[in-house]
Amino acid sequence: MLKYQQIANQIEHYIEQHQLQQGSKLPVLETLMENFSSSKSTIIKALDLLEKKGLIFQVRGSGIFVRRKSRRGYINLLSNQGFKKDLEEFDITTEMISLEIVKPTQEAADNLQIAKDQDVYHVKRIRYISGQTLCLEESYYDKSIVTYLNKQIVTESIFDYIREGLGLNIGFSEMYIKTGKLTDEESEYLKLPTADPKLIMESIFFLANGTPFDFSKVTYNHEQSQFFLLGTGL
Amino acid sequence: MLKYQQIANQIEHYIEQHQLQQGSKLPVLETLMENFSSSKSTIIKALDLLEKKGLIFQVRGSGIFVRRKSRRGYINLLSNQGFKKDLEEFDITTEMISLEIVKPTQEAADNLQIAKDQDVYHVKRIRYISGQTLCLEESYYDKSIVTYLNKQIVTESIFDYIREGLGLNIGFSEMYIKTGKLTDEESEYLKLPTADPKLIMESIFFLANGTPFDFSKVTYNHEQSQFFLLGTGL
DNA sequence: CAGTGGTCTAGACCACACA
DNA sequence: GTGTGGTCTAGACCACTGC
Fold first, then answer.
1. pLDDT by residue (tens digit) across B171-215?
2. Which of A142, A226, B98, B222 is 20 to 30 A distant from B15 in Cα terms?
3. Is B68 an 8 Å CB contact of chain A?
4. Which chain B residue lies closest to A219 (C-alpha atoms)?
């Protein structure tokens, strides 16, 4: 692991262990340089990581301070995968509805930038939070990249498998969010009245080399799902 | 303006002017260092900026490539203020409904971290996109920080005024997103049936020194509003 | 004006992609 | 193995905050 990541982790643990509150001042740069025996740039890189994660904020001419978000139980829109971390205090489970190899819909082919006659894995899953339905997920994986999937992988973590099992590097994503009314099928799965509000999140995930490999449409139960986002550098 | 920002801007313009497509390769680091007569770290810092903005992606051992998002007409959730940039092809206008100095609600006081007897500016506005209602906004500004507001400021850009008029440094934000059903009042303003879906976005904005100064609740018209978010470094 | 964070440089060395 | 991006260092100098 890289030095600046290690330093970032150590500072993060330090903040956690000492239960530092919003606004607490961290040691100055020079002290951190000595403590971690490293150069200024490396410390700054570690701090930038923490700032991006929303754990600290830096004020020029003044110091480095702890930042704490005020609300709990919201899902981080940028948490780079999964609700696990945000909702770890809750009980999240996944149920597979279907897993099959098909030809993509027009929409899926467009978003995956592939031809309509190429094979894709089509996966439908439901996520539960403390027994209640959290969301309904429909995903398409480019089979020429994600060459194999089975029930176990799909019930656990597909992304972990892609990274570790297939040795692929996941790079970046695009996410599109809107609201709408639940269809009959959706309201049945989510156990909510038809035409109730839903939150729709469409995501496209790309490998580090820029190739899209996953297009997902997720419908969230409006009574269970709340999202947050931390902005930096306005 | 800082050197790395200038370089970032120039590269951005270069991409725009040459209409580079998704996946186009940019010159290698060494070439960029020569072209902009600067050190490696400065170029990398400029590229990191562009990567964060979602304009390029860097692949170690391979090169620097142009990234283009696939859809238009969505609002960037991280665009650091305003829809102007995302929706510049559309006609956005703002109408002020009310502007008054009041004592905060419990909710506003909590989010602004002030006492309930401190004064706040309470602002209600409607935003239109091509004549249709886009959203309904209710904001509270800590009057001890944002000492003055008038109709003109509120109809134009409050944030520009805070930055330039008051000389304050805006730092970071927290945003919370959920869905719900429109109330009678909201549906009247948004010209949609009562109980139709709405998207609620609550934001808290902080000065660079960590003090919250603005708490806003925005209700979006579900037929007009679509958001996007670019993820990096998964 | 002292204290503190940020920018920029030059250069050594490392890690990964791809042919 | 060559090309290419990323990490890390030491140090000069700049810019902002707050007493």
1. 999 999 999 999 999 998 888 888 899 999 999 999 999 999 999
2. A142
3. no
4. B179
